[in-house]
Amino acid sequence: MNSFLLETKKSLDKLSTFKKVKIILGNESCDLDSTVSSVVYSFLLSHLLKTSQTIIIPVINVRENDFKIKTEVIYFCEDCGIDSKNFIFRDQINLNNLKNSGVLELVLIDHHTLVADNEELRSTVTEVIDHRPRDPTSHFRDDAIICIENVGSCATIIARHIFETDPSIMNPNIAKLLYGTIVLDTACLSFDAGIAKPLDFEITDKLLHICDKSISKEKIFKDISTARANISGLTIQQIIKKDLKTVSGIPIIGLPILVKDFLLQPNVSAAISQFCTDREHNLAVFMGLNVGSEQIQRDFAIYKHVKNADDLALNLINNLQRNNFDLEEISIPNLSHQFNVFKQNNSKFSRKKLLPIVKAVAQSI
């Protein structure tokens, strides 16, 4: 794997020598699932497509300087022997130039909707692998291969592809990389969380037989969760960007701690206001998470940056209640009236469930 990543990075200076440049692009949040799935799928394709005229390149969909805030990704890749210094980041390759040269083929991993900056690349999408609910407004060319399945982790689909096409590449490190990613995404394969599906259990069982025999899903889950929650060296702005997705102009910020605790940080309101001003957002949505030994806790907040965001915020809250998020508003002393903070009693609903609701509400205004 490391040799493959190093060779792809060296190839950046000679892309013009290839007839096709197949980019495997993860989603904009650059979480563990997106990163691992795009890198491992690229490695698989490099074995399946044995031609010197096409190069396979995994691209981590953040700027290189922002990768340091992805603490759990850095930790677990290193733990599995993957050198993240060989990753290629979005600001290190010009996809528009490749498109204009007629050589770009784009594979979307762990997402199937394009942000505004990528919209002109839509015609180059040849394949999609994702595990979130299908967006009916997202269309691709007729010959694109679309694989969107209701499973707990995109890594589950990638692992199945490997078992079905070239299981010889599944060494203990890659198996652990995929296994740990699925374990994190499914809250340690918890039945109570309701995230893991039958295929997740089937695939993790196969992966476990390849991993080191001393591996423990509880320890892996705890270690990755601890790395994800380690925000001690990050600024408020970096915490906001750590797990950020934008839908129809609305930022949805995933936090590795509960929102109610995040909002107690010094100068947090000013930092959130500046974030919205810089990016011209009228409203921001926060989802907090605390993974304990016994249960998962989630909470939710809306920040209204401008006065005319009140109707949008109310519409969103009402829609979430109709979709059984079971929000219970809580009070935080001395917090600005621009915030509405809720305990999310239905902890089974993650951001994957939230995204299409936010999009529908935003487009209805």
TrEMBL record:
User: What are the leading ranks of the lineage?
Assistant: Eukaryota, Metazoa, Ecdysozoa, Arthropoda, Hexapoda
What does UniProt give as the signal peptide span?
none
- Report the domain of life of the source organism: Eukaryota
Q: Which cofactor does it need?
A: Mn(2+)
One Pfam family name is DHHA2
Q: Which PANTHER family match?
A: BNIP - RELATED, EG:152A3.5 PROTEIN (FBGN0003116_PN PROTEIN)
Q: Which UniProt keywords apply?
A: Hydrolase, Manganese, Metal-binding
Which species is this record about? Clastoptera arizonana (Arizona spittle bug)
Gene Ontology CC terms, in alphabetical order: cytoplasm
What is the protein named? DHHA2 domain-containing protein
